[in-house]
Amino acid sequence: MDKPMLDAGTPLLAEVTPSALGALGVAGFADTLGFGSRVRVGVLLVDGLGWDLLADHAADAPVLSGLPRRPLRVGYPATTAAGLAAIGTGVASGEHGLVGYSFDLPGVGVLNALRWRRHPDGEDLHDRVRPAEVQRLPTTFARAAEAGLTTTVVSSASFADRPLTRAVLSGGSYVGVHALGDLAAAMSSALSSPGSFCYAYHGDLDFMGHLHGPGSLPWRMQLRQVDRLVESVVENLPPGAVLAVVADHGMVTLDGSAVDVDAEPALTAGVRALAGEVRARHVYAESGAVDDVLTTWREVLGDRAWVLHRDDAVEAGWFGPVVAPHVLPRIGDVVAAARGRAGMLRKTCEPKESALVGQHGSLSPAEQLVPFVLAEAG
Q1: 201, 291, 328, 360: most buried, per Cβ within 10 A?
Q2: CA triple 216-373-50, angle to 5 deg
Q3: How far is 368 from 316, CA to CA, in rounded Å?
């Protein structure tokens, strides 16, 4: 079957933090994105802010739209766990190992990476699965701190000690915040001294997109708040500072072509586990059943998804230029990436996820491309 062409000419989200450290003069890092030589660098990640969405709703975000920007490609899958890990490690999912919203962890079962629970039954895995076993690389924040930078991670107070946070954001001082006001204030404080690197995260735009749809009125109203947040941070940038605004993925609204995998017996025949998410599925076959599962998924989904054998997806570079040996078994024997506005729902096993209006994860430009917006101190 045909394979999507990955745009090798577009820089990757995984380049953001290495480029920031390069701009700050940390040995071993190169500024490939053009931060320029700096003494203070801030990175604000707005969950779910796609390149196309920002362009389509520029009037709701005059500050962001008025700043210099270029697109980045987030990599596969286009989802928060993989995107945050790309920021936190500087490499693609094949190396950092967070290959989906959920994925099969050998010896454990399917791990929901955001909740750190078994998927879909919800068994708590906080005590059983160590973050350092799932994501084995040193974080960019740890490397920044070791180089002598004042390194700060600003995000929700509720995320402070979560396993995913420890896996991909550890190494800097964590500042837990509760609203846009203290997020902006915390970034300003973190960038007050020379030699400082601050990363901040805001997640409400993604939530509005999932719940009401990207581009809906609630989504647009939230985008206006994000724009005001950016304006507040930029207004308070100290001399020599620069702020980059990025995202972990874009989003699409599903149409009527979505298939409910739980209601299609053929799609579960020979399948021992199913993971990923609505737009990007990992399918783990029972022993000896891989070829049959691959054939069936291709036949049933047709042009609604690209369906590849694991080896072909890896060879095509979906998970980056390198896939570590311990990461390879986490990738499904069969990998299915939705096309158009289709999706692979699981209404019985994943009722909440399947009910969401907006979805992401696949290889469309709407999901893959995000802005890299750069603002300098006045």
Answers
A1: 360
A2: 30
A3: 16
Q: Is the peptide bond before 194 cis (omega within 30 degrees of 0)?
A: no
Q: 104 with 117, same domain?
A: yes
Distance of CA 378 to the CA centre of its chain: 31
Residue 345 dihedral angles phi and psi, to the nearest 5°: -75, 165
Residue whose structure tokens are 């001399």:
239
- Range in 8-12, 281-285, 299-303 the model is least confident about: 8-12
Residue 354's domain comprises 259-358
CA separation for the pair 252, 68 (Å, rounded): 25
Distance, in Å, from the CA atom of 57 to the CA atom of 59, rounded to the nearest integer, reads 5
**Residue 228: which pLDDT band, with cuts at 50, 70 and 90?**
very high
Contact 216, 39 (CB under 8 A): no
Determine, yes or no, domain membership for 3. Answer: no
The angle subtended at Cα 13 by Cα 313 and Cα 120, nearest 5°, is: 60
CA distances from 4 to 21, 31, 105, 328, 337 (A): 32, 29, 27, 21, 10
* 150-156/196-202 β-pairing: parallel
pLDDT of residue 1: 60
- pLDDT for 8 equals 84
Token pair of 127, please?
Answer: 């005590």
Kindly state the DSSP code that residue 39 receives in the 8-state scheme. Answer: S
Q: What one-letter code names the amino acid at 284?
A: Y
Cβ neighbours for 227, distance < 8 A, ≥ 6 positions apart: 60, 61, 62, 63, 64
Q: What is the 3-state secondary structure (H, E, C) of 244-278?
A: EEECCCCCEECCCCCEEHHHCHHHHCCEEEEEEEC
CATH of the domain at 201: 3.40.720.10
Query: Does the predicted TM-score (pTM) go above 0.90?
Result: yes
Closest CA to 251 of 339, 364, 335, 101: 364
Cα-flanking dihedrals φ and ψ of residue 49, to 5°? -85, 90
311-325 pLDDT, tens digit each = 999 999 999 999 999
Q: Are residues 151 and 277 in the same domain?
A: no
**Is the link from the previous residue into 163 a cis peptide, with omega within 30 of 0?**
no
Q: Which two tokens stand for residue 169?
A: 């954001």
